[in-house]
Amino acid sequence: MNNRIQELRQEHDWSQKDLARRLGVSRQTVNALERGRYDPSLPLAFSISKLFALAIEDIFQPES
Amino acid sequence: MNNRIQELRQEHDWSQKDLARRLGVSRQTVNALERGRYDPSLPLAFSISKLFALAIEDIFQPES
DNA sequence: CCCGTATGTAAAGCACACTTTACGTATCCT
DNA sequence: AGGATACGTAAAGTGTGCTTTACATACGGG
């Protein structure tokens, strides 16, 4: 699962810490998501989607 | 997180077992999702979304 | 009555999503 | 040089997503 989190975060000039705070998760979680270490839960994916005002499908793309 | 899985499955006249097979998960997983025992992983949410040809947002709605 | 199908649920186990604490490196500013 | 900020990562712990096996109930068709 690829995602555009880092790209979107940088467009907003937010640090990982800033984004983490806005999402209510730890900075390490944001880092892990950006680096593709794991996928977010569905609720967290919705939070990200709402924060960036984009559809989940516009932020996350399944591998194949 | 509410979802319309049962409704969509029934529209297609599929048993939980049928749906599970199409999604590549166990019947118990489909049952648990329909009954709201837990949310699917993001990859599984995408599989469901593709199977029913609907956006994730049209199948899953965050509680608040 | 029996059999097959559909559904709900439980227990045990594994992998992953996420946390806190902590440490390392790089960069920038004074 | 020193301090602040940003990022990457590791280890240990908790809870959840999903599996397999298994059992129970209900229904419909022979």
UniProtKB/TrEMBL annotation, chains A, B:
PANTHER family, A to Z: DNA-BIDING PHAGE PROTEIN, TRACRIPTIONAL REGULATORY PROTEIN-RELATED-RELATED
SMART domains recorded: HTH_XRE
Matching InterPro entries: Cro/C1-type_HTH, Lambda_DNA-bd_dom_sf
Pfam family, one: HTH_3
SUPFAM superfamilies per record: lambda repressor-like DNA-binding domains
HTH cro/C1-type domain segment(s): 5-59
Name of the molecule in the record: Helix-turn-helix transcriptional regulator
Keywords in alphabetical order: DNA-binding
Origin: domain of life: Bacteria
